[in-house]
Amino acid sequence: MLNRWLFKQVDNSALVVFRALFGFLIAIEAFGAIFTGWIRRTLIEPDFTFNFIGFEFLQPLPGNGMLWYYGIMGLFGIFVMLGYKYRLSIICYGIMWAGVYLMQKSSYNNHYYLLMLLCFIMSFLPANRWFSLDAKIKPEISKISMPRWVWVVIVLQLWIVYTYASVAKFYPDWLDGSFPALLMRSKADYWLVGEFLQQGWVRYAIAYFGLLFDLLIIPLLLWKRTRLPIFMAAIFFHLFNSFIFHIGIFPYMSLAFCIFFFPSEKINKVFLRKKKKHYDGDEIIIPSYRNFLIGAMSVWFIIQLALPLRHWFFQDDVLWTEEGHRLSWRMMLRGKSGRITFKVVEKGTSDTIIIDKKDYLSRKQLRSISTKPDMIWQFAQRIEEEYAEKGKEVEVYAEGKMSVNGGEYKPLIDPSVDLAAEKWQHFKHHNWILPSDSD
């Protein structure tokens, strides 16, 4: 039964078309980062970046090196789109993207993480067997079918992303519409729709449409009777998000995924008119690596299911502490504002120096430093290292307050703790993060 479900051959039209769309989008992501100035603001202007803790060895290339870096990534994206040296191209793009993702946290979106996962998954898929330069150059690799496990992996990964995104919205500030209202308040000056978005009922429409859409889209795409209506809803939902929130390629990549739910005949009619027939056989091909493949898929999805749950094992609310927030599909759930002061005290003296953050951080980094405890800790470590290079041993203290979703400002960091002496622990709560109910 398992063999038939995973290794039965099915038509590969959805996969090869998605590969072309995916390659186009990741090329746009890379070239867009160059021409919009994102690279300059995020990777060139700052004196240093807030990397994922443990990946300090990943640093931006000097000068304009990151512009060339992204240019090469964009070229690999084009190769993926064309299906030229596909396997090498998707692996290279994936490695380079993962490097940048782990290199900085000042600009964080869930689609950056999803893109890293997809590059990894796509590097194992036979996405160049048709509609590709590889198949044209080497006709012997051409094939109009693929094992069904390929479809299963894509759909299951999508279900995890959407379902966790929906479940995360089951908290008071989302359910009562207060956070969607806060989101829309910042869009009041938008052309044509700004005033409309401020109406009272809109916050509830956004809150519950978003929650239900994320929860139901995969099941409704799987059911033939609801496939077309939910696809039309997806077009509205993702284009709305693109226009209102400016979140890059993510809405269009999400629409591209929908192709996996449509019949091959329709896909061929729209995208692959030269593919004169679709695969309709009943062949089951069990590879020699069957057991390894099933084991690898099991481990992968256990990790994907477990990572978004880890915040439940930390003390206090993830909305406050951020512990377990990343890699968890917690998308556009809260708005934070804060203020923070760093003080340096040289050991053996009572001399206190107030750090001017503007001397160290870019404008983009300044917007994040006061609300992200891990970045606060990293900045304290950075200050301590700078003074150590001058031959001075110092203690670094931080005092700050934060507001979540427009609420009351409350103390975030214990001002009596020397952050320079603290060790970072990935799977343990840090007691210097004050409780969310402290005054």
Question: Given the C-alpha coordinates, what overall shape results?
Answer: globular
Q: Low-confidence spans: pLDDT under 50, at least 5 residues? A: none
Number of strands: 6
Helix content: 40-55%
Decide which structural class fits the backbone. alpha+beta
Tally of distinct domains: 2
Q: Mean of the pLDDT scores?
A: 93
Counting DSSP H or I runs of 4 or more residues, the number of helices is 18
List the strand order in the largest sheet: 4-3-5-6
Please outline the major beta sheet: 4 strands, antiparallel
Task: Give a quick rundown of the structure.
It is built from 18 helices and 6 strands. By secondary structure, it is an alpha+beta fold. It has a 4-stranded antiparallel beta sheet with strand order 4-3-5-6.
List keywords for this structure.
four-stranded antiparallel β-sheet, two-stranded antiparallel ribbon, 6 strands, 52% helix, 8% strand
